[in-house]
Design goal:
Blueprint (H helix, E strand, L loop, with lengths): L1 H17 L3 E8 L6 E6 L5 E2 L2 E3 L6 H13 L2 E2 L4 E7 L7 E8 L2 E2 L10 E7 L10 H11 L9
Parallel strand pairs: 1-7
Antiparallel strand pairs: 1-4, 2-3, 2-9, 5-8, 6-7
Length: about 150
């Protein structure tokens, strides 16, 4: 019994070190007209929901607030609603993305284009850009009820 317990503990430690896990956050920021904020990064193709990686020692909420401020000049005025956590293995095995809906916010500044963000803009859900990232399009369509939910980003 003791040997079985020790073996299990050793395997648990091995799995934690051998199976990397990454975590990111993204937000569906909705304005008073029902439009959704999208960002176009300089280092990848297409429009995406604002967000990024969760830093070591940072909570999901802290990461979301930081990324929204950095990428969109968005300051949370109330809690964001967690929609779900989605498997993003197409990008990296073990990668996951937490998606939030943000309705209560303010934007005291519009960030100027920089090394990371080429531009930001609000789009009607009925007129999303053709070059939107497929995962972002899926999350928006799921939120609107025009697509069945999926667990994959």
């Amino acid at each position: 019994m003791l040997l079985k317990k020790l073996t299990r503990r050793l395997f648990q430690h091995y799995w934690r070190w051998s199976r990397g896990l990454t975590l990111g956050v993204r937000a569906i920021v909705i304005d008073d007209e029902g439009r959704i904020l999208l960002v176009r990064h300089t280092y990848t193709e297409g429009w995406n929901l604002p967000g990024g990686g969760v830093e070591f020692g940072e909570s999901l909420d802290e990461s979301l607030a930081r990324e929204l401020d950095e990428e969109g000049g968005i300051i949370l005025e109330g809690p964001a609603e967690l929609v779900g956590i989605f498997d993003n293995r197409a990008l990296f095995p073990g990668d996951h993305v937490a998606i939030y809906v943000v309705r209560n916010w303010r934007r005291p500044r519009v960030p100027a284009p920089n090394m990371e963000i080429a531009e930001t803009s609000f789009f009607s859900p009925d007129a999303l850009p053709q070059t939107i990232v497929p995962g972002a399009r899926r999350r928006i369509e799921e939120l609107r009820g025009t697509r069945a939910p999926q667990a994959v980003w």
